[in-house]
Specification:
heterodimer; A: alpha/beta; four-stranded antiparallel sheet; B: mainly alpha; 11 helices; 0% strand; elongated
Chain lengths: 309, 264
């Protein structure tokens, strides 16, 4: 079987603006029917990378293939196959949401039903409001609708939930999940670790235009620092017995009387060893907590804690 | 993870890709129609493109503010038609483009399958549509005020209106496509006001002081208004100078616009 070529393949991408290098040898790949989150602090090169893939900005070096073509070559043919949600949206200042969506839908051969999309994204209530008076979240939802209305194969979403309330964010996440389920490839940029963890098959963390980490959310959060498990039980239990029962390289301790800590990779097997050890001593493990690094911890570890302009 | 809410809201297969570009005609009518509707719905634009020309048409015809040969309507109506073209193709267009860029719509449309040439064609068609509405409304009011244009000149007048749209339209795109929206707003309104008073629109070239008449004749406003007075007043073809002035402004402004206009 011939493997399906990826929707987006970027190799050694370089983009300079004057003396600053916005993108510095970046590689990434978005397989078909998957979600890739491009994560990075302000000015890391996320938007530049996306704009090069959309054919708006020309690369200085490196190879970019979007749906098998060079985006700088034939943008109109490529744009008929992709959906774009630019950062900050885009619409006539006086236009109504469904009017704008209709113009964008007219550019596609077999668009989604505009009325349905308007109502499912909750834009019915503001049907008579000019775009410039919509809230940030409403503008974002319209921009998202414009990106998907043409039934594209690949969607670029630049900070899709910026300025949205939690309900709006949930809705967008659902929509992105449905895109992936239906075979659409999605490249999204975000600041929100939670968003990347919830949606992405792959996360690429970039900083200063370079990839600093790459993997699934689980891989990124599991690697490096160890996990740990904490629980409460009766104080003074026999820790040597527990250490002997656990695989090598695990560490068990009782830092405070009645509070126990096990360090190492926590999987169901380890959990069952711990609970049966408690049971053997006639104790019940209580308030069991597995602490895992969040993607945010990984992100801050890799990109530092100082503020970016 | 299967969330029942997702299945309800977005049934499986909703987003199954079916990509492809829409037909050129569909894209064109959707964009041009929307832009024309927006122009006719925007209060400030309607003030500029219809209300002020109507007030000037009625006021200058019935009140003796500016010295004009009788019948006054014969000098006023062609000037007001020229004003209408300038208001829509130049001032209205520049301001709309400035704010459209600010709100990212040009970039938004460029990100669809809409080709660049069609994007420009749609904008021009919207301008021509508004100008057609203006010509109809102002023509009817002028007729009620007693205007009887020379039928032989109507064809020439239409040509002049198209050439005027081209000249003012390319200047409007140049202005709105390069400067910040607020600066465009100020410049487009000041230029409109200056050309209205001293550019041969309200006051015919013959009534302007000598050197100013020379300058105004070389401006698109003077060339268009004077050309319309000639053709609609006497049925004469417009002078070669009037046509050349309009063509020259179109060529110069569009050559510059192609090089400098930015998407946002």
């Amino acid at each position: 079987m011939i493997p399906t070529p990826p929707a987006v393949a970027v190799n050694g991408l370089v983009k300079r603006y004057g003396r600053t290098t916005a993108v510095d040898g970046l590689d990434l790949e978005v397989p078909v029917a998957s979600v890739l989150a491009l994560l990075g602090p302000n000015g890391a090169g996320k938007t530049t990378t996306v704009e090069i893939c959309e054919g708006f900005v020309r690369a200085d070096a490196g190879e970019v293939r979007v749906l098998g073509t060079d985006p700088s070559g034939a943008p109109d043919a490529l744009r008929a196959r992709i959906g774009v949600m630019p950062q900050g949206g885009g619409a006539y200042p006086g236009v109504h949401a469904s009017e704008m969506l209709r113009v964008v839908a007219a550019c596609a051969a077999q668009p989604l039903d505009v009325g349905w999309l308007t109502s499912v994204l909750g834009l019915q209530a503001c049907a008579r409001t000019p775009y410039k008076r919509l809230s940030g979240g409403q503008q974002q939802r319209l921009a998202l609708a414009c990106a998907v209305v043409g039934r594209p194969e690949l969607v670029f979403l630049d900070e899709p939930t910026a300025g949205m309330d939690p309900q709006g964010r949930r809705l967008v996440w659902e929509l992105i999940g449905a895109l992936r389920r239906d075979g659409v490839a999605v490249l999204l940029t975000t600041h929100l670790m939670e968003e990347a963890e919830a949606l992405a098959d792959d996360v690429v963390i970039i900083d200063h235009g370079r990839v600093v980490a790459h993997g699934s959310p689980a891989q990124l959060t599991a690697s490096g620092s160890q996990q740990e498990l904490r629980f409460r039980a009766k104080p003074g239990m026999d820790l040597d017995g527990l250490t002997a029962a656990l695989p090598a390289a695990y560490h068990a301790a009782e830092p405070i009387a009645g509070r126990y800590l096990v360090q190492g990779r926590i999987d169901p097997g380890v959990l069952s060893i711990i609970t049966s050890w408690c049971a053997a001593q006639g104790a019940l493990a209580d308030d069991v907590q597995v602490a895992r690094r969040s993607l945010e911890d990984v992100f801050l570890e890799l990109t530092g804690r100082e503020l970016r302009p | 993870m299967t969330d029942p809410a997702t299945a309800d809201r977005f049934p499986a297969g909703t987003f199954t890709p079916r990509p492809g570009a829409g037909s050129a005609l569909t894209m064109f009518t959707a964009q041009a129609g929307t832009e024309m509707r927006l122009a006719l719905r925007n209060g400030e634009q309607v003030l500029l493109t219809l209300l002020i020309p109507i007030v000037l048409l009625v006021g200058l015809t019935t009140l003796d503010i500016v010295a004009l040969p009788e019948p006054r309507i014969a000098a006023v109506a062609p000037g007001v038609l020229a004003l209408a073209v300038m208001s829509t193709a130049f001032t209205g267009q520049a301001i709309a483009l400035g704010f459209d860029r600010r709100y990212g719509v040009i970039r938004r449309l460029a990100a669809t399958a809409l080709p660049r040439w069609l994007l420009v064609a749609g904008r021009l068609a919207a301008v021509l549509g508004v100008v057609a509405v203006q010509m109809a409304v102002l023509g009817v009011i002028a007729a009620v005020l007693g205007w009887r244009p020379e039928p032989a000149g109507v064809g020439w007048a239409l040509l002049l209106v198209l050439l005027g749209c081209a000249a003012f339209g390319s200047l409007g795109i140049l202005l709105g496509g390069t400067l910040r929206a607020e600066i465009t707003l100020a410049v487009a309104n000041v230029v409109w006001f200056l050309l209205l008073l001293a550019g041969g629109i309200v006051v015919p070239l013959a009534q302007l002081p000598g050197p100013l008449a020379q300058v105004a004749g070389a401006l698109p406003s003077g060339a268009l208004a004077e050309g319309l007075r000639d053709t609609l007043g006497d049925g004469r073809p417009p002078t070669a100078a009037a046509i050349l002035v309009l063509l020259a402004w179109t060529a110069a402004a569009s050559a510059l616009a192609i090089r400098t206009v930015k998407l946002r």
